[in-house]
Design a protein that fits this description.
InterPro entries: CHP03960_rSAM (IPR023862), Cobalamin-bd (IPR006158), DUF2344 (IPR018768), Elp3/MiaA/NifB-like_rSAM (IPR006638), Radical_SAM_N2 (IPR045784), rSAM (IPR007197), rSAM_horseshoe (IPR023404), rSAM_sf (IPR058240)
Protein name: TIGR03960 family B12-binding radical SAM protein
GO molecular function, one term: catalytic activity
Number of strands: 29
Structural class: alpha/beta
Organism: Eiseniibacteriota bacterium
Radius of gyration: 30 Å
CATH superfamily of the largest domain: Cobalamin-binding domain
Oligomer: single chain
Number of helices: 28
Bound molecules: iron/sulfur cluster
Pfam family, one: Radical_SAM_N2
Distance between the termini: 41 Å
Length: about 950
């Protein structure tokens, strides 16, 4: 349980003699009273990737929480880079923020290092944007996409200081919602979640918010709110259901009086533009899917019998091609991203996919933006699409035959033939792809060892097909995942093979792969076992989730964090046999997930199960223009109601996107600006294509790494629409070179890079850059590079830093300001007098020692605003360039140097003994200066 320090205890600046260090630290905490300040000063300097918690994404709405009637916190129980890659949470975040009375923010699972620091310091779970305590929100809505994220849900509730179970919470606590794919089998986490939204959330979330708002105005009790929520379409309130054991031994929910016996999932009839932000969030930190993701279609009617996503997302709703093109162009203009992904369960099934790819390839070729189709079927890679995409980027194509033999493909209804797969591979090979990743499953119902061997045989024939198409270096990677039977599919009642049997079948695959020119990869059996337990699990498993969380399980989806032994101990202690959850079940009996009615009926699923047993295929209703009555109400794909889209019109889409893109530009004050554009006209600005640019990286960006900073600049440059120059080759890059990296946590008023344009950019260069830069970056000055000049990195010899000591650090040292200044001065003099200064640096698990003395030029103690400051002038010595915080460790061992405020104030070189800045090095007197020293480390 968290213990937050009382905020009404005031501390003195200088602690009395004899005060212990823990007491000092506790007193320092008490000076900082808001969660936001504590996150900034105490947490961010001490975690490995502070960008995960910054909330500085471009286009984040930042609605004032204090003015919002309803505060919603959208939570993703995994790391920031996974969570912000999810389209669903972005959509709901956007949809909610469209309501004037609602402010919605985001939160992701704190990484273990951040969790440890938060618990140590009593910092509660907080939102990304405002750094507000999660418990202050009216609703916390979890996006549940994967079974192995459940312990993170509990950890986040606990870090928020909230009771874990619905029955322990009341109207003072936030309402805990959950949605996403796992809401379709909610029982393992039913005791922790107040209400599940089943299906598409775009419209359902409004109905929930309306009730929460009414409940708040009318002061409803929590039970009143839950009772009313239970009657909202698509909302399941587990509290209204007791459980009863079936003859198979599973706990199934039974409605209490006043609650519906089953809850039907909901779906939106069209993918309206208003669901998608015109200016998508652009995080400064890198995320897993670091590209513009544009949903082009939802649902799939191919009818693969193992695929839950295909069943629960029916019917298919295609976004018109024209809308897709407009959203892509608008999104790219707003973000400057280098890649766009046309997202759906099966992108090449969109009826206008060829028109879309052609139009986008035409529109984007000048900007070198790549187009990606993340999911393509093995049988329908259109030649034209493959050609247009391979023309941009020659990577691997990903195809999912899922099974090796035709018989097995018929069982699972993966309705394609070997000839179609070979044709797709040959097309990809011919069009310049470097290889194919082929995805298969093992452990499918009715699978034999011959079916397993057929996987490798098929992959080998694909390899031959690629060679026959003239691509001798084409590589085939076979990736095999264990089959986990999913609820709401025709295989929902099938047996999942045990861990021992799975190991045997993987052995068969390994033997079959020997001697073949293929790479075989497979997923581990432990993860599959846990997935299998929870995906068809009942309410009893809630106790197991809580016990696993209490014993330290977190991030179970990450192999390096999965504590499988702990999970097995938990199951044993609770008397749960995990492998029993893998057993075959009877479709005649109720199952734990049957309380949820997916878009397709059980009758249809059972019919498909019977057809699977006979290896009989069922066609795609959309392609064959026939309806198999799968159960979708008012299905828009039925042949007699289906409507074609308008043709794609690229110029029209470009005009629409351009009209939208005219938005107010940022205007910076003159405080940092050193030289205006007009002053440079005489120096060749109107004709030059190469420029040196100096910029400020202020406090808002201090926790941004050098790589993230470079990426932020590249995207800002793309947004500026300046005439950028790109390198040649398959992966074109902007022609820019940065100065020495700034350590994480430092700010700077002296960052610099060189940039090349394809033609002179115009005299308003500075204004155009400032207009698109994220908060925390601002151009200080720029100058054309008129002479042949060595690279920036080779020119610079050293840097100067100013170190300031925030009050919390001063208190930590135990010195009054005057005493701190004199102590610093004395110790700096002593350090400068030493012949050697040994520094021990740890980096990614390795420790390196070096003598930092040659790197230290001078250390000067001064004052600024009546507070002591330390100016460090440091040289970039090869592999031994000392950093200011390492000097601080020597000078002030009493304090944690990570709390200091370090600013780089100058970069310099000293040709002929005269210190020159990077701009003076561009003048005739500095021309050609290159240092002979090493690189800053
Ligand atoms: S209702 Fe008919 S047309 Fe619609 S998805 Fe189901 S089978 Fe296909």
């Amino acid at each position: 349980m968290l213990t937050c320090c009382p905020s009404d205890v005031s501390g003195t600046r200088v602690p009395p003699p004899g005060t212990s260090r823990p007491a000092l630290v506790a007193r320092r905490f008490s000076m900082i009273t808001t969660v936001s300040e504590r996150v900034q000063h105490e947490l961010l300097p001490r975690v490995s990737k502070p960008n995960r918690y910054l909330g500085n994404a471009l286009h984040a709405p930042h609605k004032p929480l204090a003015e919002a009637e309803i505060k919603m916190l959208m939570a993703f129980p995994d790391a920031f880079e996974i969570g912000l890659s999810n389209i669903g949470i972005r959509i709901i975040h956007h949809v909610l923020n469209q309501r004037p009375e609602v402010a919605a923010e985001l939160v992701f699972a704190p990484w273990p290092d951040a969790e440890a620091e938060m618990r140590r310091r009593g910092i509660p779970l907080f939102s990304m944007e405002s750094h507000a305590a999660a418990a202050e929100f009216d609703v916390i809505g979890f996006s549940l996409q994967y079974e192995l994220q459940y312990t993170n849900v509990l950890n986040m509730l606990d870090l928020a200081g909230l009771p874990l179970r619905t029955v322990e919470r009341d109207a003072r606590h936030p309402l805990i919602l959950a949605g996403g794919a796992q809401a379709f089998s909610p029982e393992p986490v039913a005791e922790f979640v107040d209400a599940f939204v089943i299906g598409d959330g775009e419209e359902a979330i409004h109905r929930v918010v309306d009730l929460v708002k009414r409940g708040k105005r009318e002061d409803w009790t929590r039970s009143t709110l839950l009772r009313r929520l239970a009657h909202v379409d698509g909302v399941y309130v587990p509290w209204g259901y007791e459980t009863r054991a079936t003859v198979e031994g599973w706990q199934t929910p039974v409605a209490r009086p006043g609650f519906p016996s089953r809850v039907r999932s909901v779906w939106v009839t069209e993918l309206k533009s208003e669901y998608y932000p015109a200016a998508p969030l652009l995080p400064i930190g890198e995320i897993t899917h670091d590209r513009l993701s544009v949903e082009i279609m939802r649902g799939c009617t191919r009818g693969c019998r193992f695929c839950q996503a295909g069943m629960i997302n029916r019917p298919v709703r295609e976004k018109p091609g024209q809308q897709v093109i407009e959203e892509v162009l608008r999104g790219l203009a707003a973000t400057g991203l280098e890649e766009v992904s046309l997202v759906s369960l099966s992108s090449t099934d969109h009826t206008q996919i060829v028109d879309q790819v052609n139009a986008l390839a035409d529109a984007l070729c000048a900007t070198r933006v790549q187009i990606a189709l993340p999911s393509t079927r093995p049988d329908n890679v259109p030649v034209e699409v493959a050609r247009r995409m391979a023309a941009q980027k020659k990577g691997s194509i990903t195809l999912a035959p899922e099974a090796g033999s035709q018989r097995m493909r018929d069982v699972i209804n993966k309705n394609h033939t070997e000839e179609e797969l070979m044709a797709s591979v040959a097309t990809a090979a011919r069009e310049g792809y470097t290889g194919a990743k082929l995805y298969f499953m093992c452990g499918l119902p009715g699978e034999t060892d011959d079916d397993l061997r057929a996987i490798l045989d098929l992959a080998q024939r694909a390899h031959r097909a690629a060679r026959a198409a003239g691509n001798a270096s084409f590589r085939i990677t076979v990736s095999v995942s264990p089959h986990v039977p999913k609820p709401h599919t025709p295989f929902a009642w099938a047996e999942q093979v045990t861990t021992a049997e799975l190991a045997r079948r993987l052995g068969v695959l390994r033997d079959a792969a020997r001697g073949k020119p293929l790479t075989l990869k497979y997923r581990d059996a432990e993860t599959s076992l846990l997935e299998g337990v929870f995906t068809r699990g009942d309410r009893r498993l809630g106790e197991a989730v809580e016990q696993a969380f209490r014993r330290g399980c977190r991030f179970d989806a990450w192999s390096e964090h999965l504590r499988f032994d702990t999970w097995m101990e938990v199951f044993e202690d609770l008397g749960i046999d995990p492998e029993r959850y893998l057993a075959e079940r009877s479709p005649e009996l109720d199952q734990p997930w049957d309380v949820v009615q997916s878009p397709v009926t059980k009758k249809f699923l059972v019919r498909e199960k019977v057809r699977a047993d006979r290896a009989a295929i069922t066609d795609d209703c959309r392609l064959e223009d026939v309806c198999f009555s799968c159960g979708v109400d008012e299905c828009p794909q039925r042949p007699w109601v289906k409507q074609p889209h308008e043709p794609v019109d690229l110029p029209l889409a470009q005009r629409a996107a351009t009209a939208f893109g005219r938005r107010a530009r940022r205007v910076h004050g003159p405080e940092h600006r050193r030289v205006g554009g007009a002053a440079h006209k005489a120096q060749g600005i109107a004709t030059s294509t190469r420029f040196r640019i100096e910029f400020v990286k202020d406090a808002a960006m201090r926790f941004t790494s050098h790589l993230d900073l470079m990426r932020a600049w590249e995207r800002a440059l793309r947004r500026s629409e300046l005439p950028l120059a790109f390198s040649q080759g398959h992966h074109p890059h902007l022609k820019m070179s940065f100065g020495p990296p700034l350590p994480l946590g430092y700010r700077s008023r002296a960052e610099v890079f060189d940039l090349e344009f394809s033609r002179p950019p115009g005299v308003d260069l500075q204004e155009r850059l400032d207009a698109v830069l994220p908060e925390g970056l601002q151009v200080l000055r720029f100058r054309p590079i008129l002479f042949k000049t060595p690279s920036l990195m080779s020119q610079l010899e050293g840097a100067s830093y100013r170190v300031r000591f925030p009050r919390a650090v001063q208190v930590e040292t135990g010195f009054a300001p005057d005493a701190l200044a004199s102590c610093l001065a004395r110790r700096a003099t002593e350090l400068e007098a030493r012949r050697h200064v040994l520094v021990r640096r740890q980096n990614e698990g390795t420790t390196r020692e070096f003598d930092a003395r040659p790197s230290i030029v001078t250390l000067d103690v001064g004052s600024e605003d009546d507070a002591p400051v330390l100016d460090c002038h440091l040289r970039f010595t090869p592999r031994a360039a000392v950093r200011p915080e390492e000097i601080l460790l020597e000078l002030l061992p009493e304090a944690d140097p990570r709390g200091a405020d370090v600013e780089r104030v100058a970069l310099w070189s000293e040709p002929a003994g005269r210190r020159m800045d990077p701009f003076e090095l561009l003048t005739p007197s500095g021309e050609g200066v290159a240092r002979s020293h090493g690189t800053p480390s």
